[in-house]
């Protein structure tokens, strides 16, 4: 599984529907699981981003599908980064000539 870090901002619609956060989070987790991924963790934050999610997905294509499906909620905008553990990086570096 690949690991992705999603940095998100809530839209005005999400703020207007604040009482629905819990249900929307459950729907997003369901979208992720249905696509074959896993919501590892979700944190609401203060500052530049309103939330951070750690998501595992089998491929970049699957993650793209997840992002488009969640985007249909019209309640978030996001930036997504693929992440790797130190061990994964070390394995790549050790293969260098």
Count of individual helical segments = 4
The helicity comes to: 40-55%
Largest sheet, in brief, is: 4 strands, antiparallel
Beta-sheet strand percentage? 25-35%
N-C termini distance: 26 Å
**Low-pLDDT windows of residues:** none
Mean pLDDT: 96
Strand order, main sheet: write it out. Answer: 2-3-1-4
Number of strands: 4
Secondary-structure-based class equals alpha+beta
Query: Measured on Cα atoms, how large is the radius of gyration?
Result: 15 Å
User: What's the multimeric state?
Assistant: single chain
- Shape from CA axes? elongated
What does this structure look like?
The structure is a single chain. The chain is α+β, with helices and mostly antiparallel strands. Helix content is 40%, strand content 32%. The chain has a 4-stranded antiparallel β-sheet with strand order 2-3-1-4. The longest helix has 14 residues, at 21-34. The radius of gyration is 15 Å and the shape is elongated. The mean pLDDT is 96.
List the helices and strands and how they pair.
Elements: E1 2-10, H1 12-16, H2 21-34, E2 38-44, E3 51-57, H3 60-71, E4 76-83, H4 86-93
Antiparallel strand pairs: 1-3, 1-4, 2-3
């Amino acid at each position: 599984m690949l690991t992705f870090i999603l940095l998100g901002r809530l839209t005005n619609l999400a703020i207007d529907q604040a009482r629905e956060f819990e249900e929307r989070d459950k729907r997003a987790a369901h979208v992720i699981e249905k696509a074959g991924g896993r919501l590892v963790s979700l944190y609401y934050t203060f500052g530049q981003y309103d939330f951070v999610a750690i998501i595992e997905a089998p491929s970049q294509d699957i993650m793209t599908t997840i992002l488009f499906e969640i985007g249909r909620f019209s309640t978030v905008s996001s930036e997504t980064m693929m992440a790797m553990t130190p061990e994964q990086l070390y394995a790549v570096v050790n293969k260098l000539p």
